[in-house]
Specification:
heterodimer, A: mainly beta, Protocatechuate 3,4-Dioxygenase, subunit A, 4-stranded antiparallel beta sheet, 3 helices, 7% helix, globular, B: alpha+beta, 5-stranded mixed beta sheet, 12 strands, 11% helix, disordered N terminus
Chain lengths: 193, 261
């Protein structure tokens, strides 16, 4: 660890023409029958939606592979335009800017070998991105109780804090996960070292 | 006041540069000495106020954490032209043509190979090709200001662009951002993700800018400033800047060779 790291800086307000790309939040191969939607709002310390945030997700493939595959932002070499994923490979990477209402979504497949999606949140006003996890309750067992306690991270948190990391399954194919940047019910954010 | 003694409201509109400078000095005095990254609660950058967590981050030391792996990118994800921001339109953009070159390394000094580097910036007049940037500077029909490339086997990246202009913003009265290029970087693990900004040496606006000053340690701040490198300048064509990037955070300890086994 001899090299000092380059500091983080805010993503600022003007990434919108640069970082988002067509199909960035369509992680599941188009038309895949097991596709699920994970969605929610990014909210600030006043409970107001954050319309200039970007949520990135990373996850294992359904077979548990963590190697990822290229092709999240395939380009047409003749026009230079993004032409989207190839509909076959599961790249594991999603990029979801919030809309004007502060809402984000990814359509994906459930991860294999781990009960969660990894998420990184970037926003104007946030000088260093934040990591969190989106646990899918059905992957923790139907009640989410005992199995949640067996997960090293969830098991280390009290019930109230733990609940901020577990998505709400609103129908068999839809999970709601709000990200609260600040406040009494603020989301658990993580650091890796 | 909150429990932690922070102001319960953001700093008000209309503060002078002098008042912001005083806030910068206060934040710097309160900061952890030698911190590599900016504190997320940084009052001089007013829009940080309601957008940072009040609770401590939870450390994850689990060797099975998915974050120790990360997304892959490849030849289908970029085209050769994506690294040349001056070649994306029919005509040449206005401004001072520059190249920005460097290496992406991890904290052990190992090159980060085959990973995605994305950049975005204002044009030479300081205007972004973004609908919300309406300040009175001209758009350039020949400049969008977005590029990407993959790092090579040595961790190297290179972009050709024009030097961005400074631009005003509304953090305080007479607030101006120094010229900068936004960078987005991926490492070998998701836990190494970095979004940051590269600055230019000798920019007179650097001492006044609460964004670069959010990095409270001077040595860390200097790591955000590129170096003019005369050997990178091309005669009668472009000026060269060098900027190396070191990604923080752990990564999986396996090598590609071991991973293939």
């Amino acid at each position: 660890m001899s090299h000092a790291p380059t500091p983080s800086q805010t993503v600022g307000p003007f990434y919108g023409y640069a970082l988002p790309f067509p199909g960035g939040n369509e992680v599941a191969p188009a038309g895949h029958p097991d596709t699920v939607t994970v969605h929610g709002y990014v909210l600030d310390g006043l409970g107001a939606p954050v319309p200039d945030a970007i949520v990135e997700t990373w996850q294992p493939a359904p077979d548990g592979s963590r190697a990822g595959l290229p092709g999240s932002l395939r380009h047409d070499p003749s026009s230079g335009k993004v032409i989207g994923r190839n509909g076959v490979d599961f790249t594991g990477f999603g990029r979801a800017p919030t809309d004007a209402a502060g809402h984000w979504f990814v359509r994906t497949l459930r991860p294999g070998g781990a009960p969660y999606l990894c998420a990184a949140v970037f926003a104007r006003g946030l000088v260093h991105h934040l990591y969190t996890r989106v646990y899918l309750p059905d992957l923790l067992g139907e009640d989410g109780g005992q199995e949640a306690a067996g997960d090293p991270l969830l098991g280390s948190l009290d019930a109230g804090r733990r609940a901020t990391l577990i998505a709400t399954r609103t129908d068999p194919r839809t999970y709601r996960f709000d990200i609260r940047l600040q406040g009494d019910d603020e989301t658990v954010f993580l650091e890796f070292s | 006041m909150t429990a932690r003694g922070l102001p319960a409201h953001p700093l008000p509109d209309g503060l002078s540069q002098q008042e912001i400078d005083a806030e910068v000095a206060r934040a710097q005095a309160a900061a952890e000495p030698g911190a590599h990254h900016p504190p997320r609660d940084y009052p001089p950058y007013r829009s940080s106020h309601f957008r940072h967590p009040h609770r401590s981050l939870i450390p994850v030391r689990d060797p099975e954490a998915v974050e120790l792996s990360g997304p892959a990118f490849g030849v289908t994800d970029v085209t050769a032209l994506d690294r040349d921001l001056t070649a994306q339109h029919d005509g040449e953009p206005l401004g001072e043509r520059i190249t920005v070159t460097g290496r992406v390394l991890d904290r052990a000094g190992r090159p980060v190979r085959g990973q995605l580097v994305e950049v975005w910036q204002a044009n030479a007049s300081g205007r972004y090709a973004h609908q919300l940037d309406q300040h009175p500077a001209p758009l350039d029909p020949n400049f969008t200001g977005f590029g990407r490339c993959l790092t090579d086997d040595d961790g190297g990246y290179s972009f050709t662009t024009v030097k961005p202009g400074a631009y005003p913003w509304r953090n305080h009265t007479n607030a101006w951002r120094p010229a900068h290029i936004h960078f987005s970087l991926f490492g070998t693990s998701f836990s190494q993700r970095l979004v940051t900004q590269m600055y230019f040496p000798g920019d007179p606006l650097l001492p006044y800018d609460p964004v670069i000053r959010s990095v409270t340690d001077q040595a860390a701040r200097e790591r955000l400033i590129s170096a003019y490198d005369h050997d990178l300048s091309v005669p009668e064509w472009s000026l060269g800047y060098r900027w190396d990037i070191v990604l923080d955070g752990p990564c999986a300890t396996w090598t590609e060779e071991e991973g293939d086994a």
